[in-house]
Design a protein that fits this description.
- The complex is a heterotrimer of chains A (about 300), B (about 280) and C (about 650).
- Chain A is an all-alpha fold and about 300 residues long.
- Helix content of chain A is about 75%, strand content about 0%.
- By secondary structure, chain B is an alpha+beta fold.
- Chain B has two domains: about 110 residues, Ubiquitin-like (UB roll) (Roll); about 130 residues, Alpha-helical ferredoxin (Fumarate Reductase Iron-sulfur Protein, Chain B, domain 2, Orthogonal Bundle).
- A five-stranded mixed β-sheet of chain B has the order 2-1-5-3-4, covered by helices on one side.
- Chain B is elongated and about 70 Å long.
- Chain B starts with 20 loop residues before the first strand and ends with a helix.
- The N terminus of chain B is likely disordered.
- Chain C has about 650 residues and is of the alpha+beta class.
- Among the domains of chain C are: about 325 residues, FAD/NAD(P)-binding domain; about 130 residues, Succinate dehydrogenase/fumarate reductase flavoprotein, catalytic domain (Flavocytochrome C3, Chain A, domain 1).
- Chain C has a six-stranded antiparallel β-sheet. In chain C, strands 6-2-1-10-19 form a five-stranded parallel β-sheet. A four-stranded antiparallel β-sheet of chain C has the order 18-11-20-21.
- The C terminus of chain C is likely disordered.
- The chains are: A mainly alpha (about 300), B alpha+beta (about 280), C alpha+beta (about 650).
- At the B-C interface, helix 1, helix 3 and helix 4 of B face helix 1, helix 4, helix 5, helix 10 and helix 15 of C.
Chain lengths: ~300, ~280, ~650
Amino acid sequence: MSDNAGFLQKHHFLIRRLHSLSGILPIGVFLIAHLVTNSSILWGGAALKARGQAEDLSLTQGGIAYFQEEVSWINTQVPHLLLIEISLWAAIAFHSILGIYYATSGKSNLAHYSYQDNKRYVLQRWSGYLGILFIFYHVATLRWGWTFLVPSGTEWSHHFSASTLAAAVQGSTSGYTAIGVVVSLFYFLGVSLLVFHFANGLWTAAITWGLTVSEQAQKRWGYVCTALGAGLMLAAWSSLAGAFLTDHDTALEVESAILVEEHGPEHLEHLIEEVMDDEDHDEHTLNTTDTDNNEG
Amino acid sequence: MTTATAHQPTSDKPKAVPGRSVIFKIKRCDGPGKPFRWESFKVPTEPGSNVISCLKWIAANPTTTDGKQTTPVVWDSGCLEEVCGACTMVINGRVRQSCSCLIDDYAPREGDTVTLEPMSKFPVIRDLWVDRERMFNALERVKGWVPIDGTYNLGAGPQESPEHQQMRYALSECMTCGCCLEACPQFLKEEDPKNWDTAFIGAQAISQARYFNEHETGARLKGDRMDVLTGPGGVSDCGNAQNCVKVCPKHIPLTESIGAVGRSATVHAIKKFFLGH
Amino acid sequence: MSEQRVIVVGGGLAGLAASVRIAEAGLPVDLFSMVPVKRSHSVCAQGGINACNEVARQQGYSEYEHFDETIYGGDFLADQGPVLEMANWAPKIIDLLDRMGVPFNRTHEGFRDLRLFGGSLFKRTHFAGATTGQQLLYALDEQTRRYTAEGKVTQYTFWEFLYPIVENERCVGIVAQDMRTMQIRAFRGAAVVMATGGNGLIFGKSTNSVICTGGAASRCYQAGAKYGNPEMIQVHPTAIPGADKCRLMSESARGEGGRVWVPKNVGDTRRPTDIPENERYYILEERYPKYKNLVPRDIATREIFDVCVNEGMGIDGSNQVYLDLTHRDPDYLTEKLGGILDIYEKFVGENPRFTPMRIFPAVHYSMGGLWTTYTPGDYNPDSPLPAHKSGNPIPIDSNPGHGLTIGAPNNMMTSITGLYAFGEVNFAYHGATRLGANALLSCIFDGLCNGQSVVNYVRNEAPTVDTINQSVYDNAVKSEQDKHDAILATSREPSEASPEYNPYQIGIEMGDIMNAQSTVVKTGAGLTKCLDKLAELRERYKKVRLADGAMWTNQSLSYTRSVGDMLILAEAIAKAGLLREESRGSHYRTDFPDRDDDKFWKTSVATYNTSTQLSDIEFVEVKKGLVQSRPRTYGKTDDAKDTAKTPEPATAS
C-alpha cells in the first residue's frame, strides 16, 4: 500500500468529516454571501431607495450602484483578501478532489431503484463534477483574468463590476451574442447545480454528523434545506438575470459616476489608461464612456 | 405494513390468468470464474405460485424453452416465510426475497416473463446462489454481540423501557439478507476478503452495531465498534442515497441507524481527540 | 497432542447453545451447518418461550407446575426426569437470554412482559414481538460469533453431515461434505452432538424450512442410533397451504369468529363469495353444534382432514377448506388480527378481509427423534404424585439436579456412545404432543444443561481420537464417496427422463402418502397402505436418476441423497404408527380411539435393521415415577363425549 493510501486510511474519518465540513465552511458560507451580494444587482436599487438614498437613480441604476459599492467594499476594505481567496480556492480544491475520489467509489443504480433520494444521490455527484468545471471557468475568467476564455475578450474589473460582468455573460459590450447566450446558459446550469449541491449536501451532512437521526427529523431538516435551497436558487437566478439583463453602457455610466464622485475625474482617467495599457484589444470597453453619456 | 380499510380492494393490478404458463429467464453460472449465460424455462403456474415453487418445478423439469435438457437451477432458500433471508435474489431487476414473490403480481398474463438474477454484490457460487460471507464477517468486525460474563446463572439482564425495547426490536429483525447492500450504490462487490476491512461495510452492519450499542451491556464494546465504523469503509462512506431503507423487507429504519451511528462517530472522534481514548 | 475437539452438527438453537456452552468450558468446537447458522429453522418460531416467572409464581404457579403441564400436555409419553429438569431451568434460561440482549417485550416498569399460551392458566410465556425464535436464535448466533472470533468455535458453513464415524462402539467423528466444492472429508471429534432439528419434509409441504429433511437423523439411525417415538408428529390445524410450503395461520382467526366451510357441491368452481349460504357446508358447525368453530385444536384438525382426505370435499378437489372472516367488519379484523392477515395477504395475494382464506392442517413438529438416555436426578418420590394443583405446596424445589444428574456424561446421549442428540432431533421432552412455546425451551435447555455432559464425557471417558488409525476415517470417507459417486453416476445414464425415477417426483409422492396416512387421522389400513407405497418408492429410488452431473454445488445430488434417507425414516414413522394401537396425543387412530396405558404407556423405539433395511420396533417402558397418569381432557371430558363425532376410518382403496 502506498504511503498516500495509508495516510488516507489512517485519517479516513477525519478527512471524510473535513470534506463534509469544508462544503459548509467556508464554501457554503461563501456561496451564500456571494449569491446575496451578486443578486443585489437586481434588488439593490430598491434597497437604496428604501434607505432614502440614490433618489436620482432609476431602480436599475440603483441596483448597479449598490452592487458596485458592495464589490468595492470587498475589494478595498476586506483585509487580507488574497489570503481569504487562496484559502477558499484551497477549500474548493480539497472538497473537489476528495469529492471526485469519493463519488467515483460508488456505482449508481437509478435504473432499478429510481427513488427520489437515489436521484438526489446521483444528482449530487453530477452537480459536483459540473460544478467544479463551472467554478473553474467562473474564477478563471472573472478573477484570474483568463480573458481568452471570455467571448467578449473583456477582463472583469472590480471598479467596473457590473459592466464588465455584463459583457462577460452577454458575449460583448454591445449586446447579446450567440456564444454569450451559451455562456449564460452554462452559468444558469452551473449556479443551479451548485445551489442544489449545497442544499442537498447540507441535508446529508446533518445525517452524516448525526444531527438528524429520526426519519421525522430528516424530513423536517429536508424542508429547511429545501427552503434555503429555494432562497439561494432565487438569489442565484437573480444574480444571473441581473448580469444578463444589465445594459453594459448604463452600468459603466453608473460606475464611472461613482468613481468620479469618490475620487475625482482624474482617477477615472487614470484607471482607464491602466486598463488600456493592459489590454490593447478591448478598446471599446471604455470607448463607450464618452458616447451615450447623458442617457437616463 | 399496509393496513386494510373498510372498502373493497380496488383491482389496480391486472387479474391473473388461471392455468397460464410463465417464462422464467434465469441468469446462470456454473461456478466462480465461469461465464454467465441466460436460460429460459416455461413454467405452468397454479394459484399462489411464487418464485420458489416455480424454481422447484424447474428443478424437477429442467428443460429450457428451446427444448434443451439442462441442469436444475441452483438457488439458496430456507424458511420460505421471509424470516431467514436465504432466498434473496434479483427479480425483474430489483432485489427481494423470492419466497414472498408471487407470480400473479409479476406475470399475470400467459407468456409473461420473470427475470431472475443472482445478487450482483456478492460472488456467485452457482446460478442464483451467492456467498454472503462478507455480511457475517462484517458482524464479526463490529463485534455484533453482547459481552456477557458467561452462560452461568447470574440473574436477569438490565431492565428496559417498552419504548426502548420497541426501538431495539425493530433493529433486531435484520435477517442478513443483503437487500440493503444490493441496492446501495456505495456498497460494491468485493471478492477478495482482504479488502473487506476497507470497503464500505454497508447499512446492515451499521444498523446492527447500533443495535448492540443500544443494549446496556452491549454498549461496553461501543468504542471498539466505533473504531471500526470510523475507519475506512465505515459509516462515513455512506452516500445517503437511502435505497437501503426502501428495499429492506423488514422495514428496519436503516437510515435512522446511519444517522445515529454518525452521531456516535462524531462523539467518539471528539472524545478520542480530546481524551485520547 | 492437540486438544480433543467436539463436533456439533446443526446451528439452530440447540446446536448454538451447545457450542457456546462447550466452548465456554474450554473445549474447541467444530460447528457444521448446511446454512449460515443465522438462517436455521429456529428462526421460524413465533409465539414465545415458556418459563415460570415471579408474577406467575406469586399467583400460585411454579416450575413444578410447568413440568406437570408439560407431562400432561405430552399425554404422559415423555420420560419424566428430563422434563422436570427442563422446567426447573426455564427461568434461569430466560434470565440468560435476557442478559444476552434478546429484546423481550417489556411492561411499563421495564420488566419482561408475559402472554398466555395454550396448556396453562398462567401467563408464563415470554416473547419478543412475533419473532421470538428469530430473536433467541440471533442472540445465540451472536454469542457463537464471539467465540468464533476468539477461535474457540470453528464454523463449517454449507457443510452437510453425511455419516457418523463409529469405532469400537464409540462415535469418534463424522464425514461431511462441502455443499459448494462437493469435497467429502472426515473430521475427528471426541464427541458429536446432533442438533439437526425436525423432519417435516418427509411429509411434503410442512411448516418446516427446506433443510428440515430429517436426513441427518436418518443417517445416525442407519448407523445404529435408535429412534424414539417416530410416529409422534404434531400437526398444526390451520396453516396456509402454499405452492412451496405451508405457513402458520394463528388459531386466533377462529377465535375472532372464523367459520370453516367447503362448497357442498364437490367441484364447485365459483368464487367463494359467489357461493350462496345454503350451498356451503360449515364443517365444524354442523358436526359440533355446541362448540362449532371453537372445538379443540386436535378435533378441528381431524375434521378438516377428514372432509378433504376421506370425503374428497376439499376446495377444487384439493386439500383445502375455507376459513372465512369476511362476515366480520374489516376494520375490526385489522384491529384484532392485522398482523396475521397481512402475512396471509403477502404470501397468498388475497385480502382475507374480503376473500375467505384457504387453510389446511400442516405438519409442524416432530416430538419423536433420536432415542436418548440420561442419568436421573435426586428427586425420587416414593410413589408418583397426582395432578399438581396451582398454589399447593410444591413437592420439590427448582434447584438443578432433581430431574437429571447435571453433567452425567450420558445425558441426551444416543444409543451410540459419544453421539448426542439435542433439540428437536431427540425424543426427550414433548411426549406425544408438544405444548406451545416449549420447543425453544427444550432446544436451549439441551445445549446449556447437557452441553456440560458432553464436556464431561470428552474429559473423562472419550477415547483420544487423534490416536485412532487414519484408516478408520479414510474408510468412512470412501464409503460416503462411493455412495455419492453412485448417485452422481446416474446422471450419465442415458434414459428418457421418466418421472418414475425423478427424485423430486419420488419426494412428492412420499410426502403425499405420509401426509395422507401418517399424520392427523391414522388407521391400520391406511398405514399398511402407506408402508406399501413406501416400499414401492424405495424400489423406484434404487433406480433414481439425477438430472445434474455437476461436480460443483450440486443441490440435486444433496436432495436426492436425502430422499433416500427420508424414505428410511418414513418407514419407521409409519410402522411405529401402525404398531401403536391406541390414540395418544398427536397420534390418533380411529380404529383405536382411546389411550391404552396398559399396553402402550411405552416409548416406541425403532432400530434400523441393516439386513432387511427396515425398522424393528420395540416398545420400552416410559421412565416415569414422578407424576401419575391421568386422562388428558383439559376439563372437557363430558362435553367432548357428547359432541364428538368420530371420523370414519379412511378407506383402504
